[in-house]
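Bug report

Summary: structure tokens for Tyrosinase copper-binding domain-containing protein differ between web form and batch submission.
Environment: batch mode, default settings.
Steps: 1) Submit the sequence below via batch. 2) Compare with the web form result.

Sequence submitted:
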Amino acid sequence: MANTTGSPIRVRKDAWRLAADDPTLLWYARAVDAMRQRPLSNTTSWEYQAAVHGTNADPSSFNADQQKAWGQCQHATWLFLPWHRMFLGIFEQIVAATVAKLGGPQDWALPYWDYSDATNPNARKLPAAFTAAEFGVPEKNPLRVERDQGNDGAAFLDSKAVSLNSLKHKIFTGRSTPGGDSGFGGPSRGFNHSGDNDQGQLEMVPHDVIHSDIGGLMGDPDTAALDPIFWLHHANIDRLWEVWRHQGNSNPTDPSWLTGVKFFFHNAAGQPVTYSPQDVVDTIASPWHYQYDRTGETPAAAADKTTLATGG
């Protein structure tokens, strides 16, 4: 499948719905292992990409490039969703290039973890590839890392954690004043790396709760992207933004959101690139040309009336 530019469209699929012989997670594990072997100075290395989200390193030790690229994740702002979409797009591009170089499929796409799928009895477990003792690489599993919950293969998320009550909020932009409705996507606030107040409804639940419940590396924004499940979790958050939009809701049209901020990254070739939200509002037309296998109302999208409406 290709878009109007002729570029192939990658299709992101639910990890729990992949066929038994689907190579997506197998090649993901192999690519993760290969990226971990690259030096930190390589912008396509596992540690470098994780540091783009956050890092515990002393900022005074950063070189000029790292000063611009590291510790840039956006929280408690209406930039939360577009920034993470950019971050995922770059990461998917890097992993896909790594998979291809290793001899894997040319159309590899980042899967997502739909933990809110009420039709799937396994949804509230980590996908099995992330808990196996060995997967993808002999005698180890690159997808299994330090976690407080989930590595035993049991369900550990409750209904509150996977609530989709955020989809009921029809307005993307919330108020930036304390106590105001933070909206679906967050308050109209500029660059904001700290996420300790006034998150948008989707950022609060399920985003924040999933991070906290898994714990370990995922429990700290400065280490979260070192956990391979981080990327599937955020792919699902990105997908839920598309679900919300497909329900007839609209993204901001304010120029200060569309073009007011440019974010710095390195692409799969190591070249510096910058993007604004207007560059990523359409997933197919975006620099990464992707779509989700499901963007209609998910089985749980109506949000069970008995579910606690955290932040709802």
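Above is the batch result. After comparison, the two runs are identical; trailing whitespace caused the diff. The chain is about 30% helix and 5% strand. Helices lie at 24-36, 46-53, 64-69, 80-101, 201-214, 228-246, 255-258.
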